[in-house]
């Protein structure tokens, strides 16, 4: 929508803004128009588009798999069951490969993480203008359809996983054991402030890197799609070139989408495995 | 980056999704997979067993066949031997019977010959006496010479 009335900068900003609902500083409630308004709402605002699309995609995954699970036959599987079983066996193999303890929660968790992140990333393949344009026509000021380009979403996932890591660390090693793991290595005990600093940073870095890796990749990918989309407004030569570029980037993005979902899942498993592992 | 309550909403959603997946999605599918794996393993084992049994049965059938053939050959050999024996016996019996009948026939012939000879002698003696009677009729008194005639008769 790089029309005369919108500059390129406005176009990009428009596409990168979530549909945020919250309380304005003057006390009224409503949707934010633009980043400044969204910021002024403070913490107690919610990105309606992120929530709707992420929950919708999560439900799509769960209901699809639940449908298969209900009808799961031990005989010859149907096409859909075959597909679901293929994914389940892939996840199961990954968990068996990286997680060496007994915990019935890890494999379903890994499946949820993988499928959910994959579906959220997959939304990136829709042309960037379709949904925001349709939304604008129906009076909604902003619409970002790729939930994983919203740091709230990726941090929501990684912080939940981080709390699981903390919970299992304490459960498996005891509070003292967990503390000694943080404080009494890698250097001798009398250097425990240094150890605590090093290990603490390492611990905190896990959820942050997990969330930022996914967010960064998807955000950058989205940004490139938007930049390519800008070319459509620059005459037909540029538009054709832009179309070719968009196709190429979309094909490459299929790899990124899957890879990021896989990395997120694998790191989740590894972090949980480390939380279960008895150190030294 | 603008953090807001979406963070919390997302976490709650995530926890609910994981719980749902752990409760209603993962176990049934995993169960189906495990059960099928076991069924396939059982099926393969049964197939192996069946193959093994088939081999055994084939071997047994071959053994039986060989035994039956050997037995049949034995029976045939025995039968042939017995037949030869019966023929031999029959030959011997026939020869004996023949000999015996020959002997009986010879004895018969000898007996007949003797009898014929006896009757001939009597007839010759009668003829001789009759001839002598004719010659001596007048001179010889039958009564006086009866002893002499009887003696002659006996000598002939």
Structural description of this entry:
The complex is a heterodimer of chains A (280) and B (156). Chain A is mostly helical and 280 residues long. Chain A has one domain (8-276). In chain A, 70% of the residues lie in helices and 3% in strands. In chain A, strand 1 and strand 2 form a beta hairpin. Chain A is globular and about 65 Å long. The N and C termini of chain A lie far apart (59 Å). Residues 1-5 of chain A have low confidence and may be disordered. With 156 residues, chain B is mainly alpha-helical. In chain B, 90% of the residues lie in helices and 0% in strands. Chain B has helices at 6-136, 146-155. Classes of the chains: A mainly alpha (280), B mainly alpha (156).
List its traits.
heterodimer, A: 280 residues, mainly alpha, 3 strands, globular, disordered N terminus, B: 156 residues, 2 helices, rod-shaped
Question: Which structural class do you get from the secondary structure elements of chain A?
Answer: mainly alpha
Q: Sum up the overall morphology of chain A in one term.
A: globular
List the uncertain runs of chain B. none
Number of helices of chain B: 2
Calculate the terminal CA-CA distance of chain B, rounded to whole Å: 177 Å
Query: Can you summarize the main beta sheet of chain A?
Result: 3 strands, antiparallel
The neighbouring-strand order within the major sheet of chain A is 2-1-3
The most extensive interface between chains reads: A-B, 50 and 32 residues
Helix % of chain B is over 70%
N-to-C SSE string of chain A, H for helix and E for strand:
HEEHEHHHHHHH
End-to-end distance of chain A: 59 Å
Report helical residue fraction of chain A. over 70%
Number of domains of chain A: 1
Radius of gyration of chain B: 62 Å
In what range is the share of β-strand residues of chain B?
under 5%
Q: Please tell me the overall pLDDT of chain A.
A: 88
Mean pLDDT of chain B: 90
In the residues of chain B, how many domains can be counted? 1
Low-confidence stretches of chain A: 1-5
């Amino acid at each position: 929508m790089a029309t005369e009335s919108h500059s390129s900068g406005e176009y990009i900003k428009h596409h990168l803004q979530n549909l945020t609902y919250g309380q304005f500083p003057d006390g009224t409630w409503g949707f934010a128009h633009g980043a400044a308004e969204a910021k002024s709402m403070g913490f107690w605002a919610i990105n309606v588009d992120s929530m709707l699309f992420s929950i919708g995609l999560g439900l799509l995954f769960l209901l699809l798999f639940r449908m298969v699970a209900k009808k799961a036959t031990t005989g010859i599987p149907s096409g859909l069951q075959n597909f679901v079983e293929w994914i389940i066996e892939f996840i199961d193999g990954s968990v068996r490969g990286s997680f060496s303890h007994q915990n019935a929660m890890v494999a379903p968790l890994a499946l949820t993480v993988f499928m959910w992140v994959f579906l959220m990333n997959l939304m990136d393949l829709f042309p960037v203008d379709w949904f925001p344009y349709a939304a604008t026509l129906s009076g909604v000021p902003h619409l970002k359809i790729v939930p994983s380009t919203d740091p709230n979403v990726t941090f929501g996932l990684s912080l939940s996983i981080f709390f699981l890591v903390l919970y299992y660390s304490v459960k498996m090693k005891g509070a003292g054991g967990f503390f000694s793991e943080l404080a009494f290595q890698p250097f001798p005990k009398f250097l425990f402030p240094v150890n605590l600093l090093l290990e603490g940073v390492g611990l905190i870095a896990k959820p942050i890197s997990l969330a930022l890796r996914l967010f960064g990749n998807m955000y950058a990918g989205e940004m490139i799609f938007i930049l390519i989309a800008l070319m459509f407004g620059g005459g037909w030569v540029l538009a054709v070139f832009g179309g070719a570029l968009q196709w190429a980037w979309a094909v490459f993005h299929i790899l990124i989408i899957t890879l990021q979902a896989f990395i997120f899942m694998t790191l989740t498993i590894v972090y949980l495995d480390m939380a279960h592992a008895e150190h030294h | 980056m603008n953090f807001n309550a979406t963070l919390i909403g997302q976490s709650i959603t995530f926890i609910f999704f994981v719980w749902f997946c752990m409760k209603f999605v993962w176990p049934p599918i995993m169960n189906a997979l495990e059960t099928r794996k076991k069924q396939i393993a059982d099926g393969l084992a049964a197939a192996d067993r069946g193959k093994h049994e088939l081999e055994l049965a084939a071997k047994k059938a071959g053994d039986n066949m060989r035994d039956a053939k050997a037995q049949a050959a034995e029976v045939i050999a025995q039968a042939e031997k017995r037949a030869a024996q019966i023929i031999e016996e029959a030959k011997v019996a026939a020869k004996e019977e023949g000999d015996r009948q020959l002997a009986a026939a010879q004895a018969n012939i000898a007996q007949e010959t003797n009898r014929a000879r006896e009757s001939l002698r009597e007839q010759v003696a009668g003829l001789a006496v009759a001839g002598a009677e004719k010659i001596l009729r007048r001179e010889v008194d039958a009564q006086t010479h009866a002893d002499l005639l009887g003696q002659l008769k006996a000598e002939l």
